[in-house]
Amino acid sequence: MADPVPAHPALASGAVAVVTGGASGIGLAAAARFAARGLKVAIADLPGEKLEAAAAHLAGIAPGGTADVLAVATDVSELSDIERLEAEVAERFGGTDVLLNNAGIQPGSALFGPLENWEKVIAVNLWGIILGSRVFGPKMIARGRPGLIVNTGSKQGITTPPGDPAYNVSKAGVKVFTEALAHELRNIEGCAVTAHLFIPGFVFTPLAAGGRTEKPAGAWTAEQTVDFMLERLEAGDFYILCPDNDVTRALDQKRIAWAAGDIIANRPPLSRWHKDYAAAFAAFVKGD
Ligand code: NAD
């Protein structure tokens, strides 16, 4: 089935999209969708063959071929790399209309485990989106055109399940930063750039594969997730809360409400995973 004609000008043919973490998974799927719609696409990822291969793949999709695709070796946790990325895109394509701050890592972490993991995860997942938004944002506003800044968060930054605290902290920061960004942008007179929090469910990508070579039944593909994101961007959603094959929107809503309810009901934090509250949470989900 052909893609619907996009209504948002930033998602229309001829616009310019920048995707960090664009050499793999969700980022590559987004870049491919953008290229197929006739956007000029810049992918930013760590240097190497994966980045080159992704650029070649995208050039095969883009109507203008290699002329419409730019690959920029970038470490999103480095301010100078992000500044260079913005400048290269501006020089090549004239500016940016869509910024998908999506690069992320999940090497695992333990609360009292190696500090290095904490530093790395927060540098890439949180500083990457802060730097990207701060460097590109003012230039996108000055361009005077409708624009989109989409930051990839996670349900793990909202319901914060135990097991990977550094990742949760980084993604909770992405949520808070992006909410503040949306508020900031909507209060700038004449600003046509909006911010959006993209919250994937379980998506089968190298980051989440955990050694699996086949997509588990519960996961969505990266393409499904990106199609959902595009549909919700067209609808104007700020919170782009994606389901997957295991978790419906209704279940997500219950989990989010329960997490917020920990404060309101003065329960212990993460009570969803506390043995004394297991029955109450199960009943809440069932709707009792
Ligand atoms: P992925 O590993 O396929 O893609 C992530 C990309 O980011 C890779 O190409 C990697 O090289 C790149 N990257 C890593 N560090 C970087 C750096 N310092 N600078 C530039 N690029 C860097 O994983 P994915 O699942 O597509 O992840 C994309 C985003 O989606 C991440 O932010 C991830 O946290 C988020 N997410 C994924 C899932 C899931 O189930 N896959 C769920 C929720 C959120």
Task: Produce the secondary structure layout.
Blueprint: E1 16-20, H1 25-36, E2 40-45, H2 49-59, E3 69-73, H3 79-93, E4 98-101, H4 115-143, E5 147-152, H5 165-186, E6 193-199, H6 206-209, H7 222-235, E7 239-241, H8 249-264, H9 278-286
Parallel strand pairs: 1-2, 1-4, 2-3, 4-5, 5-6, 6-7
Helix pairs in contact: 1-2, 1-7, 3-4, 4-5
The site of nicotinamide-adenine-dinucleotide has 28 residues, from helix 1 and helix 6.
Notable traits:
9 helices; single chain; 288 residues; 7-stranded parallel sheet; binds nicotinamide-adenine-dinucleotide; 7 strands
Major sheet attributes: 7 strands, parallel
Strand runs, count: 7
Helix-strand category: alpha/beta
Quaternary: single chain
Rg calculated over all Cα atoms = 19 Å
Ions and ligands: nicotinamide-adenine-dinucleotide
List the strand order in the largest sheet.
3-2-1-4-5-6-7
Q: Judging by the overall fold, what is the CATH architecture of the largest domain?
A: 3-Layer(aba) Sandwich
Q: CATH superfamily name of the largest domain?
A: NAD(P)-binding Rossmann-like Domain
Q: How many discrete domains?
A: 2
- List unreliable stretches of 5+ residues: none
**What proportion strand?**
5-15%
First CA to last CA: what distance? 42 Å
Classify the helix fraction into a percent range: 40-55%
Note the overall shape.
Answer: globular
Order of helices and strands: EHEHEHEHEHEHHEHH
Overall pLDDT score: 96
CATH class type of the largest domain: Alpha Beta
What fold name goes in the CATH topology slot of the largest domain? Rossmann fold
